[in-house]
Amino acid sequence: xxTTLTLYAHRLSQPCRAVEILLRELEVxxxxxxxxxxxxxxxxxxxxxxxxxxxxxxxIAVTPPGVGPENxxxxxxxxxxxxxxxxxxxxxxxxxxxxxxxxxxxxxxxWYPGEQDARRSACIDQWLAxxxxxxxxxxxxxSIMNLHLTLPMLxxxxxxxxxxxxxxGLKSGLAMLESHFERQGVDDSSPGMLCGGEHPTLxxxxxxxxxxxxxxxxxxxxxxxxxxxxxxxxxSRPHFxxxxxxxxxxxxxxxxxxxxxxxxxxxxx
Length: 269
What we know:
Elements lengths: L3 E6 L4 H12 L5 E4 L10 H4 L10 E5 L22 E4 L1 H11 L3 H7 L6 H16 L7 H9 L2 H32 L18 H14 L9 H11 L2 H6 L1 H13 L12
Parallel strand pairs: 1-2
Antiparallel strand pairs: 1-3, 3-4
Helix pairs in contact: 1-3, 1-8, 3-4, 5-8, 6-7, 8-9
């Protein structure tokens, strides 16, 4: 990319981490602009009107050569002009775009081959489409964070009314993944990827970033050993570890201060 890419994101967001990990994997230079999503910054006019009308994270702004000053941070400055910039939201769309535009196409096609391998790309697209309606639908990390911050007398009630239903919902997706890997012949000696082969794709990256949120807290998916092995394989990649350091620290803090209310040992047996 002979352009300047600015990533608007927050590292406690699963989709944001997926995009940043891919940028690092493909050695795409980028500027980091943290958006305080929890406190509503994505709804402020500078972001909602100029960067992403969906008011969601992540988002990117790509500045072509010769547009704007070299040090244009594309932040909340009143003087920033969006004309000439390519703006894109939604992590799956951003991931595909980064692969299409990366300078190192040999490396990018391992993640998403595009027209070079239409069937493999269709397989990746299938799992990306499945991701949102299944694994992401039952994200419990942010509910657990809210539980972590609430009064002790309410913790068990919130665990029963908010956290457990999400965990039960997630189990169907975990079972689907486990049986998929079993059909592929995955065992302890051959870590598998969703569309086969040894190299992860955008689908593996997106879904593992989602599941890693609760792995960071201490859940271990004991009833889904192939899924857990798959997560561990991708999470061991250096860029994944670097970008996930903040969520790992947050998860550790929750775990160490939780007492027994999270039921880490028995939630996913």
